[in-house]
Design goal:
By secondary structure, the chain is of the alpha+beta class. The protein contains 4 helices and 8 strands, in the order H-E-E-E-H-H-E-E-E-H-E-E. The strands form 2 sheets. A 5-stranded mixed beta sheet has the order 4-5-6-7-8, covered by helices on one side. Strand 1 and strand 2 form a beta hairpin. The chain starts with a helix and ends in a 5-residue tail after the last strand.
Length: about 180
């Protein structure tokens, strides 16, 4: 009987601590639902089988696609079975989702090449992002290069190091200014 008293005291102490934690953190707190709508940033497939994709890689099977086919295409013939993209396709979705509105309308397609995520603009210029890290910063660097009046034509922009984008070639004209 003497051994049970210290164990019972320990159990009571633990219960008191748990009750105090509940009182301080959860009691009288309201939980309200918060819905963040997903916007399509790309499409997989064509025709009636086409599926919209959100910036976080979610497949928006329910979302009606724009009739003007203005979304860039990801290089898949059909959408994966699950609800989300993974691997290189997810990286591409994240990069496309970070595109500023002014440049998004000029994005033609995306693919995963030797250098990682590559985005092709409607004038044929390729933006080489590498991975999806710092995607917004890389888009800003791309916008700065494309807005530079000294650059009149190029083939691709290497954005692996967004603080030092590198411009190569002179074969494609820049997209028109917004």
């Amino acid at each position: 009987m003497k051994r049970l008293l210290p164990v019972a005291g320990l159990v009571v102490a633990i219960l008191v601590v748990l009750l105090a934690a509940y009182e301080l953190t959860f009691k009288d707190r309201e939980v309200s639902p918060h819905l963040t709508p997903s916007s399509p940033i790309a499409v997989i497939g064509t025709g009636s089988e086409a599926v919209a994709v959100a910036a976080d890689g979610s497949l928006l099977r329910w979302f009606p696609l724009p009739e003007d086919n203005s979304l860039p295409r990801l290089p898949l013939e059909e959408a994966p079975k699950g609800d989300r993209l993974a691997g290189p396709m997810l990286e591409q979705a994240r990069v496309l989702g970070a595109a500023p509105a002014e440049l998004r309308r000029h994005v033609e397609s995306s693919h995963y090449g030797e250098s990682g995520v590559d985005v092709v603009l409607d004038g044929g210029i390729e933006l080489r992002f590498g991975d999806d890290s710092q995607a917004a910063r890389k888009w800003k660097a791309a916008a700065a290069v494309l807005a530079n009046p000294e650059v009149e034509a190029l083939d691709y922009v290497d954005l692996h190091a967004p603080g030092r984008p590198a411009v190569y070639g002179s074969g494609h004209s820049l997209p028109p200014a917004p």
